[in-house]
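Researcher: Structure for this, please.
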Amino acid sequence: MRNYLCIFILTASIFSCKTSKVAKNLVIDDKIEMESPTDSVSFEIDEIFSLLAYSIVYNYWDPIDRGGRGYNVGCILVDSNNVVLDYGINHVSELENATQHGEVRLITNYLNKEGIYSLNDHSIYSTLEPCAMCGGMMTMVSIVKSVNGQPDYYFSKALERLSFDSRSMGGYGPYPRIVKSVDTPSQFGKILDEEYKKYISSGNKPIITKFLTTSIAESIYQQATQDFLSYTPVFIENQKVYENALKFYQELPDQPK
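Model: Predicted structure, token format:
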């Protein structure tokens, strides 16, 4: 009996230590990523901006898949100083134009507004993995990184395909201006993916934009918004990043542009 008790206490102690460590660090793919303090600070920045992107989409939530404004997908543009510059929301239904994805609208509107040619050293945080059209536009304007808030499947891996080198197999080299594509460190990316898989396994068609009109998806976005509004940065150097992101959210117009 004493041996079993010792094993139980040891197991509980190990679990407690792991839990404590996880609470202090960001968790990616069920593993603690602590290669350096800089990595951890960067992961938290990515989490903050992903939460902002979710929150903007939730702010303009549309329960109609086709016939309303458009799909519940959006994104933000961030410069090399971690300042949020602009946002984009999907408008394909309102404009009856299949090109009007959030990333296309964001990039086009911002370039036109600022009168600039490209977006070197800028990053985009999207709530859904970019399609080939949006990935191609990111590539052409020299976006350095795309952080994806939920994986797509039917239209997935566009940026990875553009960066793939198949010359050893008689194919082609990577497309110029490679954009780094990464999954969000936010827990909500994984939660959305898991719920989407349940949605499909229940007999629904694998149309991710329809999933993004469900009450389940809406509740996840609502929770992400609540987490964003009550967020407390772990790293003091990210406090200003969060404050600026929060200010951007609080100044959103009543209607999406």
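Researcher: Any notable elements?
Model: Residues 139 and 177 are 6 Å apart (CA to CA). DSSP finds nine helices and seven strands in the chain.
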